[in-house]
Design goal:
By secondary structure, this protein is α/β, with parallel strands linked by helices. It has helices at 20-29, 48-53, 71-84, 98-101, 108-121, 136-145, 156-166, 184-195, 202-210, 224-230, 236-248, 263-270; strands spanning 6-11, 33-37, 58-61, 64-65, 89-94, 129-131, 148-149, 171-172, 176-180, 231-234, 254-258. The protein contains twelve helices and eleven strands. The strands form two sheets. Strands 1, 2, 3, 4, 5, 6, 9, 10 and 11 form a nine-stranded parallel β-sheet that branches. It comes from Actinophytocola oryzae. This is Putative F420-dependent oxidoreductase.
């Protein structure tokens, strides 16, 4: 499967994913993979129209929440999509966010293991699935039982650590939030509007603590230090530098989540400078 280093991350309902002309343009610009966020439905019915509207784009879920349905549902969806669009789909799964899951959120590692067992029983191949992974234990699980890892809200330093755990030959696709603006106030306002939700989620805050941040960095909308580490902003060269840092640290591709209102315009602008 040719995934390419240029990738997009956005919610599956994004209008750009519903517009065949926009998808055709993104493909021509060199974007090889689209990660569909926002907890796509486990039956994968939201994925098919996007793949149908594009010619060669690889689709990946970022991520199907393992608490939303049994693994058998996702396995059936995988086979339907993979049969219709050979070599163009990766089933990304993960445990989601504890507060959103509620009382069901218990022993998430064990849940992932049992879900992967279910995918095995459903005939989903190891190379057809990826795992949202932040900590060393789940990264090890991604290495041993999937094609690789799709970390979210991380840094190039985390990418280097993840590559060391995954080893060579495993997919590593860290999502990167992007704000194309040189105005610090505008950039950090955009960033904080998207980050505030995550400051209360232990799976993310614990990962940032492992990376050297402190509890103080999570207060009052997040410190500038943390915001700037998680969201790259500036001109095209600034964004290229951050993406290259991920690639140099071992990423295979860096899915870009654009925070600006006109996402297509930003993706057009960035494509020429992100051809490595």
């Amino acid at each position: 499967m040719e995934i390419g280093p240029l990738a997009i991350w956005d919610h599956s309902a994004w209008e750009g994913f519903r517009d065949p002309e926009a998808l055709a343009e993104l493909e021509e610009l060199g974007y090889g993979t689209a990660w569909f966020g926002g907890s796509p439905s486990p039956d994968l019915t939201t994925v098919e129209p996007i793949l149908a509207a594009s010619r060669r784009l690889v689709g990946a879920t970022g991520i199907v929440n393992v608490w939303d349905a049994e693994a058998s549902v996702a396995a059936a969806g995988y086979h339907r999509v993979a049969t219709a669009y050979p070599d163009r789909f990766i089933l990304g799964i993960g445990v989601g966010h504890g507060p959103a899951v509620g009382d069901r959120y218990r022993k998430p590692y064990d849940k992932l293991v049992s879900y992967l067992d279910g995918l095995d029983e459903g005939g989903v191949p190891v190379e057809g699935r990826a795992l949202a992974a932040l900590g060393p234990k789940v990264l090890g699980l991604a290495r041993d039982r999937t094609a690789g890892a799709h970390p979210y809200l991380t840094t190039p330093e985390h990418t280097a650590q993840a590559r060391e755990i995954l080893g060579a030959g495993k997919l590593l696709a860290p999502e990167q939030k992007v704000a194309l603006t040189t105005d610090p106030a505008e950039a950090r306002s955009l960033a904080r509007s998207r980050l505030d939700f995550y400051f209360g989620l232990p799976n993310y805050t614990n990962n940032w603590l492992r990376l050297g941040f402190t509890e103080d960095d999570f207060a009052d909308g997040g410190s500038d230090r943390l915001v700037d580490a998680l969201v790259v902003w500036g001109d095209e060269d600034d964004i290229r530098t951050r993406v290259k840092a991920h690639l140099d640290a071992g990423a295979d591709q860096v899915p870009l989540q654009v925070l600006n209102d006109d996402k297509l315009a930003v993706l057009r602008t960035l494509a020429p400078v992100l051809r490595f």
